[in-house]
C-alpha cells in the first residue's frame, strides 16, 4: 500500500483515528429533512447478512449514498468508506485477495465496507465476487448503477452473492405517504399538489427540495451528458447523443423508430441502438415493449420509450412552464404514470403497451399474475364522467381484462363491462390503486 493511498484513506475516513467522527460525517452527508425511502427497510434488514454484498442501484443523484449513510450512522461498528471515482481507490480495488489482506489493517471483522460509485471500477463484478467469496465476515454495501459492467471486459454474475435494492427518483407515495394526513380531503389535496409538481419537476431529491428546480436539473443533465456520456463512456458523437435525448423527450409514448432516428441524427442504426441501450442502463429512459396476445393485427416489435423522470424530460423539450400553459400535458401525464409504474414494476417486460395495426391502443398493460390482465389508459382531462375510449372498448372486447384503469385528473368512478371492472382513478391516488391491483391479482389468481 502506497503512502498516497494511506493518506487518502485517513483523509476520507477520519473516524479511523476518532471513533466518534463517523456519526457526524454521516449526518453531514445527509439532507436536513431526510425523506422516507421505500428501499430503506429492506436494505436495513439486508445489512445483517454478512454472506452477500448489498447493492444499491439507480440513477445518479437519486439519493443512494444519502440512504446508505443514514442507515450506517446509527450503527456502532467500524466503517471503511471508499469512493471508487478516486484513481488511487480504483488501482487498489483490482485484486480481491490483495485487497482483503490490506483491509484487515483498516477494518475489524464486525465492520462495514462501503464502496461508493462502484461502477467506476474496471471489473466491478469480478472484484465484488472475489470479496464475497473471501467470506471476511464484514458487511459489504455498494452504491452505483446496475450497469456496473458497462466498462468491464466481463459481465460477471453476482447471482447468489448479492442483494439488489433499487432507488429511483422520489415516487408520489414517498413524497406524501398514505398515512400522512388525518383528513381524506387534506390528504388528497396534498397528494394532488405533489403530483402536479412532479409532472413538472420530477422526483430527484435535490430538485424536489430546491427553490430553483430548473437550475438543479440543468446541472444533472450536464453531468450526465458531458461527464458520463462524453468522458466516461467515450461517446464518439456527443452532438448526436444530445439530439437523440431531445428526440426521445419529444416523443415519449410514441412508437420508436431506430431507422428514423438514424436518418435524423446521421449515424448508423446500430449506433442509435447502442446509445439507447446506454440511456436505459444508466436509468434515464425505459423501454416499454408491446403486449402480444396472439391477435394477428397486433404490433409485434416496435417499443415505446419513457423518461424515468419528468423533470429531465421537460428540461429537454424547453423548460418547466406551468401545467396550464403547456400543450404537452397529455405526454406529461403519460410519462409520469410510466415512471410511477417503473418504480413499482422495475423488471423488463413487467409493463407493456397494446396497439393494433388499425390504430387501437392502450397505454399500459400489466399482468400481476399469469392470466390476469389489467389495462391502464391515461388521460389529462379533469372532471366529467367516466367515458371509455374506442381503444379501451377494443381491448376489453379482445381480452376481457379483469380490470381497466383510467388514470386522470378527475374524480373516482366505477362501472362494469361484462367481466371487466372499469375504474376511473384520480392520478393522486394511483399508488393506492396499484396496491389494490396487487391484492386483486392475487385473489383472482387463486
Average pLDDT reading = 86
Number of helices, where a helix is a run of at least 4 consecutive DSSP H or I residues: 18
Coarse shape: globular
Structural class: alpha/beta
Write the layout of secondary structure elements.
Blueprint: H1 3-12, H2 21-29, H3 40-46, E1 53-57, H4 64-72, E2 79-83, H5 87-92, H6 96-106, E3 112-116, H7 124-134, E4 139-144, E5 162-166, H8 172-175, H9 184-201, H10 205-209, H11 213-232, H12 238-250, H13 258-265, H14 269-281, E6 285-290, E7 304-307, H15 310-316, H16 329-344, E8 351-355, E9 361-369, E10 372-378, H17 390-399, E11 403-408, E12 413-417, E13 420-426, H18 430-444
Parallel strand pairs: 1-4, 1-5, 2-3, 3-4, 6-8, 10-11, 11-13
Antiparallel strand pairs: 6-7, 8-9, 9-10, 12-13
Helix pairs in contact: 2-4, 6-7, 9-15, 13-14
Description:
The protein has 446 residues and is α/β, with parallel strands linked by helices. Helix content is 43%, strand content 17%. It is built from 18 helices and 13 strands. The strands form 2 sheets. An 8-stranded mixed beta sheet has the order 7-6-8-9-10-11-13-12, sandwiched between helices. Strand 12 and strand 13 (420-426) form a beta hairpin. The longest helix is centred in the middle third of the chain and has 20 residues, at 213-232. It is globular, with a radius of gyration of 23 Å. Mean pLDDT is 86; it is low at 441-446.
Descriptive keywords:
43% helix, 5-stranded parallel beta sheet, alpha/beta, single chain, 8-stranded mixed beta sheet, 446 residues, 18 helices
Q: What can be said about this structure in brief?
A:
Helix content is 43%, strand content 17%. By secondary structure, it is of the alpha/beta class. Strand 3 (112-116), helix 7 (124-134) and strand 4 form a beta-alpha-beta unit.
Amino acid at each position: 500500500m502506497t503512502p498516497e493511498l494511506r493518506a487518502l484513506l485517513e483523509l476520507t475516513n477520519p473516524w479511523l483515528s476518532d471513533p466518534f467522527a463517523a456519526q457526524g460525517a454521516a449526518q453531514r452527508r445527509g439532507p436536513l429533512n431526510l425523506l422516507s425511502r421505500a428501499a430503506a427497510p429492506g436494505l436495513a434488514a439486508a445489512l445483517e447478512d454478512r454472506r452477500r454484498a448489498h447493492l444499491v442501484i439507480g440513477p445518479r443523484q437519486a439519493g443512494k449514498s444519502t440512504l446508505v449513510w443514514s442507515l450506517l450512522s446509527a450503527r456502532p461498528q467500524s466503517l471503511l468508506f471508499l469512493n471508487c471515482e478516486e484513481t488511487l481507490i480504483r488501482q487498489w480495488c483490482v485484486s480481491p485477495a490483495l485487497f482483503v489482506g490490506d483491509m484487515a489493517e483498516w477494518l475489524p471483522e464486525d465492520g462495514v465496507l462501503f464502496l461508493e460509485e462502484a461502477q467506476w471500477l474496471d471489473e466491478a463484478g469480478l472484484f465484488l465476487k472475489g470479496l464475497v467469496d473471501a467470506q471476511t465476515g464484514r458487511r459489504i454495501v455498494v452504491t452505483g448503477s446496475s450497469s456496473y459492467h458497462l466498462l468491464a471486459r466481463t459481465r460477471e454474475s453476482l447471482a447468489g452473492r448479492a442483494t439488489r435494492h433499487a432507488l429511483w427518483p422520489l415516487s408520489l407515495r414517498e413524497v406524501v405517504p398514505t398515512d400522512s394526513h388525518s383528513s381524506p380531503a387534506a390528504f388528497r389535496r396534498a397528494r394532488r399538489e405533489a403530483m402536479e409538481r412532479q409532472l413538472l419537476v420530477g422526483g430527484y431529491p435535490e430538485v424536489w427540495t430546491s427553490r430553483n428546480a430548473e437550475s438543479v436539473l440543468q446541472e444533472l443533465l450536464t453531468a450526465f451528458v458531458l461527464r458520463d456520456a462524453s468522458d466516461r463512456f467515450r461517446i464518439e458523437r456527443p452532438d448526436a447523443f444530445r439530439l437523440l435525448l431531445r428526440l426521445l423527450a419529444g416523443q415519449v409514448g410514441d412508437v420508436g423508430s431506430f431507422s428514423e432516428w438514424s436518418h435524423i441524427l446521421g449515424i448508423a442504426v446500430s449506433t442509435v441502438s447502442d446509445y439507447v441501450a446506454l440511456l436505459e442502463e444508466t436509468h434515464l429512459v425505459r423501454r416499454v415493449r408491446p403486449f402480444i396476445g396472439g391477435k394477428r393485427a397486433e404490433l409485434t416489435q416496435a417499443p415505446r420509450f419513457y423518461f424515468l423522470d419528468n423533470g429531465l424530460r421537460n428540461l429537454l423539450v424547453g423548460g418547466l412552464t406551468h401545467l396550464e400553459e403547456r400543450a404537452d400535458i397529455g405526454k406529461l401525464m403519460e410519462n409520469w404514470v410510466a415512471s410511477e409504474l417503473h418504480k413499482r414494476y422495475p423488471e423488463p417486460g413487467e409493463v407493456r403497451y397494446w396497439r393494433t395495426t388499425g390504430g387501437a391502443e392502450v397505454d399500459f398493460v400489466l399482468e400481476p399474475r399469469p392470466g390476469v390482465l389489467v389495462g391502464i389508459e391515461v388521460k389529462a382531462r379533469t372532471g366529467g364522467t367516466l367515458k371509455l375510449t374506442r381503444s379501451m372498448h377494443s381491448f376489453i372486447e379482445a381480452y376481457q381484462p379483469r380490470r381497466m384503469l383510467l388514470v386522470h385528473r378527475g374524480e373516482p368512478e366505477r362501472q362494469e363491462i361484462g367481466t371487466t371492472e372499469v375504474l376511473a382513478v384520480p392520478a393522486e391516488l394511483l399508488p393506492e390503486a396499484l396496491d389494490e391491483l396487487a391484492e386483486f391479482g392475487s385473489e383472482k389468481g387463486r
